[in-house]
Design brief:
alpha/beta, Alpha-Beta Plaits, 6-stranded mixed beta sheet
């Protein structure tokens, strides 16, 4: 029998540009997929503005309710990058220059380029642990179970691999997708019956539009491959009975 270890996390997207619609959030997907691969389930995702009090209150709530919290955005060199300062106050730690981060960026930039604005990126909570940045030099950081990452998607992705040894995950969360040429109403009752008989497996249905035709993708998720296979068989059974076209499986 597979031993199931439940480890959970929350993702906190910080930035007025996300809330205004000027910037599209893709970081949630990147972090969630990576966490799933190492056995961490994302419990919730929140998007909040660059307001210190909101950041402090939200971080303090989420870090107590989850094993891990991942924040993105607000650790750059501009005036509205206030995540590091807010995290310092959330943990009641001094906000100060991180000596190792200073050395990293001082070596990264050419002489004269490591100006006052860029030096803002080395101010962090006291005794924060660095998250190295192989793309643009400026590190992220973590304090206890809160991990603070940049908002730029390509940079964030490049930093995730370096976090693996810092995250204690459970069993990897596996998934299987069955795509059908149908509509949700046609399979709703039968799919509910499968879900009711497999309550410890997550089954979701997601409509799509492809090639001028409607379809539904059924996604089965579990830590146990045997349970995924069982659900898949039950779904394919009613699909065949209803003579529904299978697009992919």
């Amino acid at each position: 029998m597979i031993k199931i270890t439940k480890v959970n996390a929350a993702i906190l997207i910080i930035g007025n540009e996300i809330l205004s619609g000027r910037t599209q959030d893709t970081n949630t997907s990147s972090i969630a997929l990576w966490l799933n691969s190492i056995g961490v389930t994302v419990n919730e995702v929140r998007v909040i503005p660059d307001i210190e009090g909101t950041i402090i209150d939200t971080v303090n709530y989420l870090r107590k309710a989850n094993d891990y919290v991942f924040t993105t955005g607000g650790i750059g060199p501009t005036h509205d990058d206030i995540t590091a300062q807010s995290i310092s106050r959330a943990f009641k730690r001094e906000y100060e220059i991180h000596k190792e981060a200073f050395k990293i960026l001082e070596a990264y930039y050419k002489v004269g380029e490591f100006n006052e604005g860029r030096q803002k990126m080395v101010w962090m909570p006291k005794n924060a642990n660095l998250i190295l940045n192989p793309t643009s030099g400026a590190p992220g950081f973590n304090v206890e179970n809160v991990f603070c990452l940049p908002g730029v998607p390509s940079i964030l992705k490049s930093m995730l691999g370096g976090l693996k040894d810092k995250i204690l995950g459970g069993n990897p969360i596996l998934s299987h997708t069955i795509s059908l040429r149908t509509v949700e109403s046609e399979i709703a009752k039968a799919l509910t019956e499968v879900q009711d008989s497999n309550k410890d497996v997550e089954i979701g249905s997601y409509p799509f539009f492809q090639g001028g035709k409607l379809g539904v993708s059924i996604v089965i998720r579990s830590e146990d491959q045997f349970k995924i296979d069982k659900c898949s068989s039950e779904i394919l059974e009613f699909v065949n009975q209803k003579k529904i076209e299978i697009v992919a499986r």
